[in-house]
Amino acid sequence: MKSLPKHDVTDLKLADQGRLKIDWAGRQMPVLRQIQERFKKQKPLRGIRLAACLHVTAETANLMLALKAGGASLTLCASNPLSTQDDVAASLVKNYQISTFAIKGENNQIYYKHLNRALAFKPQLTMDDGADLVTLLHTKKRSLLKLVIGSSEETTTGVIRLRAMAKDGVLAVPVIAANDSQTKHLFDNRYGTGQSTIDGILRATNILLAGKTVVVVGYGYCGKGVAMRAKGMGAQVIVVEVDPVRALEAAMDGFAVEAMEMAAKMGDVFVTVTGGKHGINLNHMKKMKDGSILANAGHFDVEIDVRALKQQAGKGQLLRPFVRQFILGKKKLYLLADGRLVNLSAAEGHPAEVMDMSFANQALAAEFLVKNQGKLTSKVYVLPASVDQMVAKLKLKSMGKGLQKLTASQERYLNSWQEGT
Ligand SMILES: NC(=O)c1ccc[n+]([C@@H]2O[C@H](COP(=O)([O-])OP(=O)(O)OC[C@H]3O[C@@H](n4cnc5c(N)ncnc54)[C@H](O)[C@@H]3O)[C@@H](O)[C@H]2O)c1
Which of 167, 166, 193, 168 is nearest to 179 (CA)? Predict the structure, then answer.
């Protein structure tokens, strides 16, 4: 038997179950599979040490396999203490020889210990979901920065943090905002978060959504998806937004639009997807109806002010997995997944079909960084539009959809000014 790579996972005995899960997800990821096949031949990541800090799910495992096929040596740690699928982590170590540090339910101290173990690998490329690894590199592990060719980032919150670092002049490596590819955020954030957030809420609570009032806080790409799917389940949806353009968009999409003070009194289920903090604060919670359910699908666990809730109402009581009851005055409030990403904690995260495109972008970002080594400066880049076109074409083809082509004369017309009324 081969010796195992360095790891810290819950139970290696779960490996075979994890392998089946990875394989099942892989079947729904045809775009990533094609990239993996090309990587296997061309080895664009030959000899590259890559550390990834991502949700350790079956879809991420398929990304790891594509990167490995490209020649990279890998280490993986979790980008959230609650999102790890322990069977997948076990399989990555035992079946695929990939160094993995991730335990579902790990505390903050172990979470950072795992990030440090990933960085001990002295990576040349890093990959983040939320920018925790790159932040550690720029703070406590600065000596490793000189080894890093570049980094890529999966989510809106991470991109916001990285742009803030670039603005402050502290970003020391080139970064690809994989999130900002159209084939990522238009699909993953909207349809992925939309479906999997509802899935997480239902798996945790088993409530009936039909006839309920669902308050969606934030009407960005994720919020649009959650609102759309909640409406589809028969809920009345109220959107809370701070951006007037997006609030208007929500109104014209047919949703009620209210300030949080008002929506707090009306909702049965609340979902935050703002990327910011305290979209729901203690004052809002005090206004809520008895029995209100609170869930977050934004990246960090600060969107609902859980700390203030705990200061006021104590540590609460766990009623079912991922459902904690708090008594606030005379009311009961139910917080899901401790205010962490409900879709990845109480369900399995996005369906593989959508992660197919997100992770195609991540794999291509790694290739782009290596190909352009030395040519990029320390700022946040977006992959070229041609990559989006290519990923979308492959996805459409795999779905058996047709695509119309412009004729030469149509193309000329669209690129000229002479023809008019
Ligand atoms: N759960 C997941 O699997 C998943 C997937 C993708 C992204 N995310 C995360 O979800 C969050 C949202 O991502 P996005 O792509 O929709 O971002 P976005 O920037 O497109 O949208 C966020 C919206 O929230 C609004 N907003 C900010 N603060 C607010 C407040 N206090 N009250 C009301 N509205 C407020 C903003 O105006 C904006 O319209 C980010 O943290 C992102 O990283 C999670």
Answer: 193
**59-84 residue pLDDT tens:** 999 999 999 999 999 999 999 999 99
Q: Residue 293: which residues within 8 A CB-CB, separation 6 or more?
A: 201, 205, 207, 268, 269, 270, 333, 334, 336
Residue 1 has pLDDT above 70, yes or no: no
Helices (H) and strands (E) in the chain, counts: 18, 16
Residues lining ligand 1, Cβ inside 6 A: 155-157, 185, 188-189, 193, 217-223, 240-243, 246, 273-276, 279, 297-299, 341, 343-344, 350
CA 366 to chain centre: 17
- Gap between the Cα atoms of 145 and 141, Å rounded: 7
Question: How many other CB atoms are found less than 10 A from the CB of residue 142?
Answer: 11
In the DSSP assignment, the letter for residue 337 is G
Torsion of CA 204, 207, 211, 216, to 10 degrees: -10
Q: Which amino acid type is present at position 400?
A: G
pTM above 0.85, yes or no: yes
Nearest ligand 1 atom to alpha carbon 300:
41
Give SS3 for 253: coil
CB 100 within 8 A of CB 28: no
The DSSP bridge pattern shows strands 99-101 and 7-8 to be: parallel
Calpha distance 37→276 (Å, rounded)? 39
Question: What sign does the CA torsion over 39, 40, 42, 44 have?
Answer: positive
User: Residue 420: pLDDT above 90?
Assistant: no
φ, ψ for residue 383, nearest 5 deg: -60, 150
Amino acid at 175: V
Provide the strand spans (E) within 171-224: 175-177, 213-217
Alpha helices by DSSP H, listed for 267-384, are: 282-287, 306-313, 342-345, 352-371
Q: Is 398 exposed, middle or buried (0-12, 13-18, 19+ CB in 10 A)?
A: middle
Task: Quickly count: other Cβ atoms within 10 Å of residue 80's Cβ.
Answer: 25
Smallest CA separation from ligand 1 atom 40, residue: 275
- Distance, CA of 85 to CA of 10 (rounded, Å): 10
Nearest protein CA to atom 6 of ligand 1, as residue: 189
Going from the Cα of 217 to the center of ligand 1, the distance in angstroms, rounded, reads 8
What is the separation, in whole angstroms, between the first and last Cα of the chain?
76
